[in-house]
Amino acid sequence: MPHGSLNGTSTTCGTTVVLTCDPCYDMEGNGLASCGQDENWTFNSRCTVKGVFVMLSSKLRANEYGLYLFLSITHLFKNNAVFKNIF
């Protein structure tokens, strides 16, 4: 499952396991997956990005004029649009 994982030790048909989402993602649906008699897993859940996720990264760089700080801010919106600022 993209941006999530199955939590359970049993892979026997007829069992149900709990789905969890990665940090910065919310569960849509009941958060359960079941293995049917046909040995296929079914689930009606998915992980979607929480509101707005902002990531700040920085790097200290040097050139012939001295040291400078390189900053990058990335915004990830609910519709998965990405906007990046570089300073």
Describe the structure.
- It is a single chain.
- By secondary structure, the chain is mainly beta.
- It folds into two domains: 4-49, Complement Module, domain 1 (Ribbon); 53-86, no CATH class.
- 0% of the residues lie in helices and 60% in strands.
- Strand 7 (53-63) and strand 8 (66-76) form a beta hairpin.
- It starts with a strand and ends with a strand.
Which CATH architecture of the largest domain is right?
Answer: Ribbon
Order of helices and strands: EEEEEEEEE
Q: In this structure, how is the largest beta sheet organized?
A: 4 strands, antiparallel
Discrete helix count: 0
The name of the CATH superfamily of the largest domain reads Complement Module, domain 1
The total number of structural domains is 2
Mean pLDDT: 77
Secondary-structure class: mainly beta
The end-to-end span amounts to 35 Å
Instruction: Give the spatial strand order of the biggest sheet.
Output: 1-2-4-5
- Portion in helices: under 10%
Number of strands: 9
Q: Which CATH class of the largest domain is shown?
A: Mainly Beta
Unreliable stretches covering 5 or more consecutive residues: none
Approximate shape: elongated
